[in-house]
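Cross-posted from the bioinformatics board.
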Amino acid sequence: MAGNARFKAVITLLLVTGLGPQSGVLAGEEDPFAEARERMVRETIELRDVSDPATLRAMRAVLRHEFVDPAMIRQAYADRPLPIGYGQTISQPYIVAFMTELLQVGPGDVALEIGAGSGYQAAVLAEIVDKVYTIEIVPQLAELSTERMERLGYDNVTVKEGDGYFGWEEHAPFDAIIVTAAATHIPPPLVEQLRPGARMVIPVGPPMQVQTLMLVEKDEEGQVRQRSLMPVRFVPLTGER
Amino acid sequence: MKPSTRFMLPALFVVSAVAIAYQIVLMRVWSIAQWHHFAYMIISIAMLGFGAAGTILTLLREPLRGREAAGFRYSVLAFMVSLPLCYIAVQQIPFETFHLITQGDQWGWLFLLYLLMAIPFVLASACTTFALFLWPDRVGRVYAIDLLGSGSGAALVVGLLFWFSPAQLAYGLAIPVGIMALLQMMDGSRRYQVLAVTLIMIGAISVAVQGIVPIQVSDYKVLSYTLQFPDAKVVAVRHSPLSEATLVTSRQIRETPGQLGNYPFAEAGPLPEQAGIFFDGGAVSVVNRFDGDLSRLRFLEHVPPSVAYRVVHNPEVLVIGAGGGTDVLMALYHGAPEVTAAEVDPSVWPLIEAELATFSGYLYERPDVRTVLAEGRGLLRREGRRYDVIQIALLDAFNAAASGVYALSESYLYTREAIQLYYEHLKPGGVLSITRWLKTPPRDAIKMLATYIEALEASGIEKPGDHIAFIRSWNAATLLLSRDPWTDDQIDAIRDFAATRHFDIDWIPGLQTDEVNQFTILETPIYFEAALALLSPEREQFYRDYLFQVRPATDDRPHFFQFFKLDTLPRLIRDMGHTWVPFVEWGYIALWATILQGVLASLLLIVVPAILLHRRAATGGRGRWVLAYFCALGLAFMFLEIAFIQKLMLFLTYPIYAVAVVLASFLIFSGIGSLAADTLLRRYSSNGVWFHLPLIAVLLIGVFAVFYTLTLPMIFDTLAGAPDLVRISLSLLLVAPLAFCMGIPLPCGLQCVSRHFPAMVPWAWAINGVASVLGAALATLLAIHVGFRQLVWYAALIYVASLYAYWALARNQADAS
């Protein structure tokens, strides 16, 4: 009987949160990390001023523990970046949420991600937008992401192995672009593939640390402006006197 | 029968030479594998192995009595084996700096690293300690041989690093030690002979079969990431004592000196193909494919440093840190009739010449490009030539800059005096252009701006703001300094450049608040506000209040990259909670960690044996004076050595020569000093000599220290343009008498202890070893906070204070005898 009750609870949860099978929670399976994930959203994301309902819903839905190395599964919901091999990391949940909110995307939108890494950010976006295209240059990571997306049922995510510098012209323009591999310059083709009124986010900082986010906005006239945003509540630079 | 000690002193010399060479090799290995500040921390702790051997053997003195010669031989043999084995073992450890925060087991690996890397140093020190046991009446001579060996090793390894990789040297250094081990066979036991031959044969066969284990490089280094690109190929690797330069080709390498501002991609096309030269797997300098047609390099019009060519036309240009040549091409693209390219790393150009001559379009062989293998300041001083544009290339890696790994590096390129020098070498109307990666929160560019302002003021300019322009993209800022006040045309040109490239202007004369923060919008226009504060009478208060250290670096405190302020750390932690971690300067934290580790290890290595010795009543109540004296000498010696190496580095301008010449001469002349002390003490054994020899030495050290601090700036200024040979000879002349005197106090103390409390000799040796390691870290810390001049004063004071401990020791000894 307990199994039946759990099944009902899962169905109810799916109906309430509006999640499809994309979320990867298989009917009848207990999610041992549900509580940890809820705590992560409540304590490290909502409390730090991320309030976009779609973003919060996506963060609650995506099974972050599926995107980390099994050896580090217990730390999956801690608010810290974790190594995923090949010198890459899965960003800390707060940064992922903050970047997703910044993109201001919704149903019907198409997003491009440069640097799929573990695929976690793409999965979060996939909970919100219609279609996510993601490009990963490291073949092993691209393969891993593809396999993960298939397994978790994210059929609105397409992973491509290749060079993200030139974007993905046949699917352009995009409503949002996220570039996770910081280069010395913003690739001009990406700016061109941004739809007027759309946004691009670039996290900047050394490995395992995001210090600042660049938000690139293209207005309706095609004029581009950048904003440098601190992802953390920031201390005043000069003392109070 | 007294055991034969033939070949032992030559063996001691070789062991000392190899130990210091191995230390330098390990520093290189760690700089390549991880990051150099971490290398510093790990090697320091390994060096404490020098102290550990003294301690262990002090406690084992009685069981070892009569077996000193055998102990020495076996230590030499074990040292030989440990050199490659320790290196190989370390490469198997899955340690990763960046995982320390997330993976608890990394701390265990780190601890294991410390233990493994200490082994060769424990064994090298065991050789010295056995020698001290063997010749209790000639401890001064043992110390002298140790110093002479170390000096020779330091000089030799710098040369060897041109020819061999650090990995090859980790194995190769075992060869001279092996030869010494074989020589020991003549007097060794049968068992020793069999063991030595077996080990040497096993070693030789293993290397022949397995080859050399490569350095395990962190996945987080830019080079590791680049090598994952499907088409990435390592074309060549060159070594120098400065760096390992790896040349990589891949179509995915696309590096520009700052943001490409409003680049018309559709019209101008992609960037030219690039090859990357990675230095120690971190910083990258690119070589652009160039076929002689400059018009194909249009991207060079759209990067921040090109603003210099909007205000000066057809200029004669000096590029400092030319590397792969992007800045040289930028100058040629903008019509420079002649470009002087200065590069300090000797491995760069041979690499380009050998592997990329056609690819680079024979850039460095063009008649309009003059190449000079030199450090920028030295070149200007030596040649005295003036330029229309002096451009300092963006030398450090984009991401490395952000993590604060350079906090401990001295950079004489960015001091107030350096900017004054560049200013003096500008032609009328000429400009200096320096581009820096921007950090968050802002600090680099603000410090550079402050340095410009103070340098101009020191050069007698009343309105420095009229000579400065500050252009910013999202990730880099270019700061221009003009020889003359900007003209209206120049100001218009800068405004036009910024507007068309979508760069922000944070300073030019007449800039209004509503003009700033237009394209890359910051929460507050912090750079403009900083410029206003720095150009106002509020400057001092701004320095005091700002979250980071942005006061200009000077030649006395040349740590441009040190931004950390101890007094603002509580504010940072309080306001940012657990997110403060990415915002600190890790190089600086590593320095404190080194000191903390050193103190803890010292307690273990010095205090514990002291308690045990005391229990055995072997100290005769003199333990505290031994501790005080040998600790003081360790600290003071390192303070002076480091301070003078720094001073001479600036004078010699070529850091490899400087380090090799100065370090080697310091150690060798100190060795000669202790040899002289040893001879004097043996010849004149009266109490007068015992009392007066250290006194005279310390007085002379004081005189030299005072004389040098007062006169060196003047001497260096006068002779800065002299040929290399003259400057190197003068450096040797300056170092010789000081180092000679610095070599005297330690053998006096060791003789003193050896005469009446021989059991304490290795303990005293251990104290000195540990204090030297701590002294090196403390010297860096003090140099950052009070400058090198004060560091010299502190050293002199410690030397003087050490005399009190010495006299207490000698008096007690006289009483005892």
